[in-house]
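Box 3.1 A note on notation
Throughout this textbook, protein chains are presented in two layers. The first layer is the amino acid sequence; the second is a token string describing backbone geometry. Keep the layers aligned when reading.
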Amino acid sequence: MNRLDGSLVSSHAGVFYPYQHQDFYAMDSLFLSPFKEEEVWDFQSISNVQLGFLGFLTLRGFIREHLDLPKIQVRGLSKQWRSYLAKENFFGKQVPFETLDFIPNLVSENEEPHVSFGKKGHWKNEFHWEKKDGVSTSLFFVATNKQSEGEVAISDLMKDFLLYSQTNHYLDRAYIRKENSSYLYLNAKETNPRVFYRENPTEFPSFLFLVAELKNK
């Protein structure tokens, strides 16, 4: 089992209890915390489907998969979560975690989104997911297992993402994360958009993560 000298795995097993909120920094602190060798994530306090939590969980799962750690086990999913994941056949997409709750695999007529950002050969694993809800759309993008030389610039991803998203949407809020830094984008109606930068070094192997909330045009 790959532990990267043991520093990434703090103990044998652990249970995590995320709670409902909208703070990407808090999600970052929890979902990018040191790994347990075996993990259970209990979603009983997150009753509503929120793509930020699903995105961060998917990111953690792919990093663990890269390190040959056991898959995350998820439990306590509400009726809303179970219905959404079943309807979208989420667990039919080879996601890097498992659920202890029964989620049927339903045949969906929803088309896969046409992804025009990413897919440049930098990463072995790339995963893109979208959720439309009335006048808004939320999405996340995860990339792990870097297979290209040199640094992968955040600006390249953001340029591609903005071209992709602004065709049919207005960007409202976004959080982009690498293994050593993060950017939070807030689009305030009264003022110019604000971008907050943080250095957030981790001991994890290289990854790229984006979660965004958009308003439909």
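DSSP finds four helices and ten strands in the chain. Helices lie at 24-31, 51-66, 79-87, 154-165.
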